[in-house]
Specification:
binds 2-acetamido-2-deoxy-1-O-phosphono-alpha-D-glucopyranose; 2 domains; 14 helices; binds magnesium ion; 11% strand; 43% helix; 3-stranded antiparallel β-sheet; 6-stranded antiparallel β-sheet; Aminoglycoside 3'-phosphotransferase, Chain: A, domain 2; 416 residues; Phosphorylase Kinase, domain 1; alpha+beta; globular; single chain
Length: 416
């Protein structure tokens, strides 16, 4: 996957000016600093490290945001525009106007080479959802020129979506009933998109879950940059011991044992909306990576996020994979998917559960080695820490392999 689509004009457009209040799509829960100063500290720390490091995101100015909102026909803004969510890629804001509440988002074009393809996919998905009760795709608000997005003179692509009311995201799952809701939500997504021919959607992120490509990139980086500290060396040794498994899903696909389907691509807990009062899952959001893929990727990604109860930045604690949550998610997921998944798909679910945290660990480590250009970070070393957390999760999954396989078997044998 290309990570080199940095757009010079974007950097220029986002250079903070002193005359207005800057905003940032900060991480509320981690207290990720909101403004320009934090970004500059971060740069200072990097300067001693490697010259090619560039700021990942400079803050967007409130005045810019107001001008962008005015490009959509949604009435006058009535509340301050506020950063929303904890996404690591796009910038996201909540906007309230006289016409209602909305989610405003800038699509990160260093990550997504063709954001118009995302918007085209959303249109196909939205039309499919209109026919399928239960599949919720947030409505896009057209810009004043009628297009479903707005391009700024600097080339940024912004979109405005309906704000789904009474919905919340969860930092962590509080219990097995919430875990069950996660499994139902993902299973329903796969069930309701199963009759959508995968080729109707374009590829928005080429090679997104091609684990062998991340390994190949890793080996290139390693040849250029030998490990500089114990953390990097430990991660590299962990990877070396597992190179044999990275192609397991590609091989199954090539052998015709598993099919391509429509996948979400990023069904981590943050991307699942729950009803604030009733607690049931309402929708999967963050649909940019909906594209042809493998259900094992989605299930593995969802489980690595939801069953790691300490979170992606679990510093100094023993990372583990929670089997009770895994069981609740798998059982509910199987309830929705039992009648259409093939035997080969069920037989490779464990491979996906092991592979996805491994792949994410590789991606975090590669980004660390490349100078934190892809994932938003608050400080140098964060991607390395996150890589080691994912690898610890892989080790725990491996230690519990037979239990996890039993849970998969039970889920798919069970009735109802
Ligand atoms: C990114 O943008 P966000 O936070 O939803 C990433 C996922 C990772 C996730 C890890 C397009 O998702 O693949 O699993 O971070 N999305 C992309 O938190 O790379
Ligand atoms: Mg995402």
């Amino acid at each position: 996957m290309t990570q080199e689509t940095a757009n010079g004009s974007r950097q220029v457009a986002k250079t903070p000016r002193k005359t207005d209040e800057p905003l940032h799509s900060a991480n509320r829960s981690t207290g990720h600093g909101p403004v320009a100063d934090g970004a500059l500290d971060h740069l200072g720390a990097l300067a001693s490290w490697r010259e090619s490091d560039a700021p990942q995101d400079a803050p967007t100015l409130l005045a810019d945001l107001r001008a962008i909102v005015a490009g959509f026909a949604v009435g006058a803004e009535t509340c301050p525009i506020a950063p929303l969510g904890r996404g690591l890629i796009n910038e996201t804001f909540a906007v309230t106007t006289s016409a209602g509440r909305y989610v405003l988002q800038c699509v990160n074009q260093r990550v997504f080479p063709d954001p118009e393809q995302i918007m085209a996919n959303l249109a196909v998905l939205g039309a499919h959802a209109a026919e399928q009760a239960g599949l919720r795709v947030p409505a896009l608000i057209p810009a004043r020129d009628g297009r479903p997005f707005l391009r700024t003179p600097a080339g940024e692509l912004w979109r405005l979506m309906e704000f789904i009311p009474d919905a919340v995201t969860l930092d962590r799952l509080a219990g097995v009933e919430q875990a069950r809701q996660v499994g139902l939500a993902l299973g329903r997504f796969h069930r309701l998109t199963r009759d959508l021919e995968p080729t109707r959607l374009g590829v928005t992120l080429p090679g997104f879950h091609r684990t062998p490509d991340y390994l190949a990139r890793h080996l290139e980086l390693r040849a250029e940059l030998p490990p500089r500290d114990g953390g990097e060396s430990d991660c590299m040794a962990f990877i070396d011991a597992r190179v044999g498994m990275v192609g397991v899903l590609e091989q199954a696909l090539a052998a015709g044992l598993i099919p391509l389907r429509i996948t979400h691509g990023d069904p981590k807990l943050d991307n699942i909306l729950f009803h604030a009062a009733a607690g049931h899952a309402l929708a999967l959001i963050d649909l940019d990576t909906v594209q042809p893929g493998l259900i094992q990727h989605d299930l593995g990604d969802c489980l690595r996020s939801c069953c790691n109860r300490l979170g992606e930045s679990a510093e100094g604690q023993r990372v583990y994979f929670d089997l009770a949550f895994c069981n609740a998610i798998l059982t509910a997921y199987a309830q929705e998917t039992r009648d259409f998944l093939g035997r080969g798909e069920v037989a490779t679910i464990y491979d996906g559960i092991r592979l996805m945290p491994f792949e994410l660990g590789l991606r975090f480590l590669n980004d660390h080695l490349e100078g934190d250009r892809y994932f938003r970070v608050t400080h140098r070393g964060q991607n390395l820490l996150k890589a080691s957390v994912q690898f610890a999760l892989v080790a725990d999954i491996e230690a519990r392999e037979s239990d996890i396989r039993t849970l998969i078997d039970l889920a798919y044998q069970g009735g109802g």
